[in-house]
């Protein structure tokens, strides 16, 4: 294989010490989220609202994304908001609603944990713990989820280099939890026409440097509903193992991130297109599990 500066092991670690590195583990890691595998040949679609806002909002959105083919449900109960006066999420009430709709739909749940003191509580409801961008370098939190037995969705910090991103994953791995999915969600650049600059080149780069699965969040990556479908399709073409997208039954009434949330119909249309792109590159979209009632 040709050598290139980016083929070097993660700085400060020999290849042997860096657990995230492909030098240490050449074969792809499969992350098992309550029966849904991320990192294999199937592309996993995670969809749902930015935040859990009410029973009606969560349930109608979840039923619809399940029917459309999403395999995992997203929804924040604890929300990291830029202003302390904005809706902060429903807290444990939101977690209860998520577990109720999981029972009905069979969809595993990924939800954010923002604080070391919440890990136990969130892990008692969730199938996968999300570490948000703003917490990618919250080392005590990374260590805490590293000690939990739940898979982790680690989002790239908005100012983080690929190397810093990998080191954040290393923190989790160093505590014994290797079930980590990396999520590129856009980085901050001089460009202001989009909310963030979605760094699709991070996908092949990360896939080369690490054995961990890589997914894309085109919702936060662009901040624009109409731009989510083209970037979602590009994500599949560039080799992502999955996508996480915000979908809302009434995007114009959303308490959080309505501008970037797909409507139910838009999500369905996009799913149909994504299936075609997956097929063109010899992959398939993972099929959701049935509910076990
Ligand atoms: C989210 O997924 O709702 C979220 C807050 O994302 P990020 O941490 O990427 O901003
Ligand atoms: Mn959001």
Would you kindly provide a written description of the structure presented here, covering whatever features stand out?
By secondary structure, this protein is α/β, with parallel strands linked by helices. The protein has one domain: TIM Barrel, CATH 3.20.20. The protein contains nine helices and eleven strands. It has helices at residues 55-68, 92-105, 119-125, 139-147, 162-174, 202-209, 218-222, 228-237, 264-280, and strands spanning 31-33, 36-38, 42-48, 72-74, 109-112, 128-131, 152-155, 180-184, 214-216, 242-246, 284-285. The chain has an eight-stranded parallel β-barrel with strand order 3-4-5-6-7-8-9-10, surrounded by seven helices. The structure holds phosphoenolpyruvate and manganese (II) ion. Phosphoenolpyruvate binds at residues 50, 76, 80, 132-134, 155, 185, 217, 220.
Q: What is the spatial order of strands in the main beta sheet?
A: 3-4-5-6-7-8-9-10
Tell me, what is the CATH class?
Answer: Alpha Beta
Low-confidence stretches: none
Per CATH, the superfamily is: Aldolase class I
Based on the coordinates given, report the CATH architecture.
Alpha-Beta Barrel
Number of domains as seen in the coordinates: 1
List the secondary-structure elements in sequence, H or E.
EEEHEHEHEHEHEHEHHEHE
The class by helix and strand makeup works out as alpha/beta
What shape does the CA trace take?
A: globular
- The CATH topology comes to TIM Barrel
Helix content: 25-40%
Radius of gyration: 18 Å
Q: What small ligands are held by the chains?
A: phosphoenolpyruvate, manganese (II) ion
The number of distinct β-strands equals 11
Biggest sheet character: 8 strands, parallel, barrel
Mean pLDDT: 95
């Amino acid at each position: 294989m040709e050598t290139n500066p980016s083929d070097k092991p993660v700085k400060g670690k020999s290849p042997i010490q860096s657990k995230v590195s492909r030098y240490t583990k050449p074969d792809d890691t499969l992350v098992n989220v309550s029966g849904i595998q991320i990192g294999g040949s199937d592309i996993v679609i995670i969809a749902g609202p930015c935040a859990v806002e009410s029973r009606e909002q969560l349930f109608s959105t979840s039923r619809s994304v399940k029917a459309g083919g999403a395999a995992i449900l997203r929804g924040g109960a604890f929300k990291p908001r830029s202003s302390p006066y904005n809706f902060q999420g429903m807290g444990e009430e939101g977690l209860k609603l998520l577990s109720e709709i999981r029972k009905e739909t069979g969809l595993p749940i990924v939800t954010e944990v923002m604080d070391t003191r919440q890990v136990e509580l969130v892990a008692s409801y969730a199938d996968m713990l999300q570490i948000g961008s703003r917490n990618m370098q919250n080392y005590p939190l990374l260590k805490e989820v590293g000690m939990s037995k739940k898979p982790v969705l680690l989002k790239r910090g908005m100012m983080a280099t690929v190397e810093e991103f990998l080191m954040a994953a290393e923190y989790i791995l160093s505590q014994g939890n290797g079930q980590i999915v990396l999520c590129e969600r856009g980085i901050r650049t001089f460009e202001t026409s989009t909310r963030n600059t979605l760094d699709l080149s991070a996908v092949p780069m990360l896939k080369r440097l690490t054995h961990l699965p890589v997914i894309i969040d085109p919702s936060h990556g662009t901040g624009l509903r109409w731009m989510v479908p083209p970037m979602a399709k590009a994500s599949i073409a560039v080799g992502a193992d999955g996508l996480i997208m915000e979908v809302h039954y009434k995007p114009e009434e959303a308490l959080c991130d309505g501008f970037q949330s797909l409507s139910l119909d838009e999500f369905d249309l996009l799913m149909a297109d994504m299936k075609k792109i997956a097929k063109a590159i010899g992959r398939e979209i993972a099929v959701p599990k049935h509910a076990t009632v």
